[in-house]
Fold:
Amino acid sequence: MDADGLAAQLRANGYRATIPRMQVHAALRHAGGHLTAEQLADGLADEGVTLSSVYRTLALLEELGVARATRLGEGDASRWELAHPDEHFHVVCDECGRVTHHRGGLVALVTAHLAEDHGFAADEVDLLVRGRCAACRDTDAAVPLS
Amino acid sequence: MDADGLAAQLRANGYRATIPRMQVHAALRHAGGHLTAEQLADGLADEGVTLSSVYRTLALLEELGVARATRLGEGDASRWELAHPDEHFHVVCDECGRVTHHRGGLVALVTAHLAEDHGFAADEVDLLVRGRCAACRDTDAAVPLS
DNA sequence: TTGATTGCAAATGCTTTGCAGCCGC
DNA sequence: GCGGCTGCAAAGCATTTGCAATCAA
Structure:
């Protein structure tokens, strides 16, 4: 979604199109996702956007279904991205920290299974995989610890 | 695993079998999982076990592969359970808060897919589904909001 | 005995909130 | 102009950590 679209959606829901809201959205769109609230605030400090506004804006964007939070580690901070229209899941490498998206019918499969067999209406499916990516596995093989 | 098994596993790894460790494990086993650190500490206050020991113990049990943490909400505290030998995922009802486990070959399917197509070695798969359970959907139908 | 482990309390880090002024509508 | 939003600073939680005392081995 572009800036005008966001402004329209905000106003359509009775919210105002303010600088922090537009800037946070632009930053998420530009970065392609996986930013913490603090990273967003740091990057937007020049525009006069503060951390608390970032948090408030993220909560709002989430409520509108525009953004989405994911916890990529145990104690870590939440990381944010724009909501994708199609389902996906996150694959995180514990070694290099790289995060990739994977798409697939998997999420739809889970949803259908739960609905049919258990009468459960799934609103949100969050699939997180942690492990080691191909690049890091190669590196390990080349430079063994022993 | 029973108490003796845990004591043995602790000592085999160079750790001591102390009261907090045995009690936290027993509490998790008895409760069947989904307890926060604070709930554990409250229930074990009579045994003189403090919150910080609960946290340290949980971290240790996780390292040993005996326990496992899951975040069931955004800002919520982590909930803990004993690790199951077989994979499973959590289904949380947003309305009544009930949490159920579901088993299935789904996790193995994801792991295999990532390994074969992307060379990614998955260590941990965390699948969380949120929505409304059958019971709550029935209730809603009987007592419509309008 | 001896060092790992605990309790206590203070510190940390992420996130939320109260309030007075500001700005989009 | 009005009321929603923001910045600022302080509070709130879950979790971690420093240190002296304690306890398992």
In short: The helical segments of chain B are 3-12, 19-31, 37-43, 51-63, 106-118, 134-142. The interface with chain A takes residues 69, 71, 74, 78, 91, 93-94, 102, 104, 106, 109-111, 113-114, 118-134, 137 of chain B (CB under 8 Å). Chain B has a mean pLDDT of 81.
